[in-house]
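Morning!

As promised:
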Amino acid sequence: MTSSAHRFGIETPKLDLTHRPRRNRKSDWARRLVRENVVTTNDLIWPVFVIDGEKRRQPVSAMPGVERFSVDELVRAVVHAAKLEIPAIALFPNTDPKLRDASGSEALREHNLIATACRAIKKEVPNIGIITDVALDPYTSHGHDGVMHGEEILNDETVAILVAQALNQARAGADVIAPSDMMDGRVAAIRAGLDSEGFESVQIMAYAAKYASAFYGPFREAVGTSATLVGDKRTYQMDPGNSDEALREVAADLDEGADMVMVKPGMPYLDIVRRVKETFSVPTFAYQVSGEYAMIMAAAQNGWIDGDKAILESLTAFKRAGCNGVLTYFAVQIAEKLQKGL
Ligand code: PBG
């Protein structure tokens, strides 16, 4: 045996190690054998943006690689996602500015963009789960998730509208209602509303711990609220400094009947995911939001990081933190890779 001491001319002490953790890392097969967390296609939820018209695909400039789809193009994209066995998609509308008003009334219209998209997808791709967003921001002229009186976002009045919005989505075939508005008491009200119309089996995925975050910027471009939003959302979304409060929010949503809970944003909030999972042991999701997507893509496009590796590592981190699944704009790209065995 040539000793390293000889090779480098430095005397090496004889280490008497019981544990050499490197043994389990010595080869690919050994690493695969001891791996604790892996990302599979079953972990992916694909958020998509819908626009009106036909045969339209529109890029989102702050999210290179992400496009907004008209309903016909969306159906095509969802057929592809279903073939890849992505379990579910999450729909977000970019509503015509002319249809936005102070109370977000377009959210309740029977044949609005989201309802039309739900019906079309249900007809053509019955085996993919459809998650619809409950909140008024893509429909209000002021860009807030609720209705306003002066500067104030009204809670209880908003909840009444959100129930009607959720019912409109359930009637159009939504499988999972996902309230992202952060009004108090909305999960209970939506659950009661759904049950009263016979939608007992429609699930609720609550954006339970949703923070007032700067990482939503590109999403607001995508749904056209960066232009409309007046002020910020700090009177209803959570303060990024808080962690115990997230547990109270999750506890409340579970008490009110949420089937699954979500933490949002994702990567900067993995500590919250871990606490939620350990405290409640319920299906827990995180949203790798638009700003996280933009950061990874920007660095990758500049050649500063290896994009594919960084994406997979980020998704693995969500699993390690305790997520059952992740809403990610990378869903299709990763599912394609996983199908090819990476
Ligand atoms: C709004 C909503 C937001 C996102 C999902 N639903 C933004 C916001 O609260 O302003 C952000 C998603 C993302 O950034 O990818 N109800």
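The mean pLDDT is 96.

Hope this helps with the figure draft.
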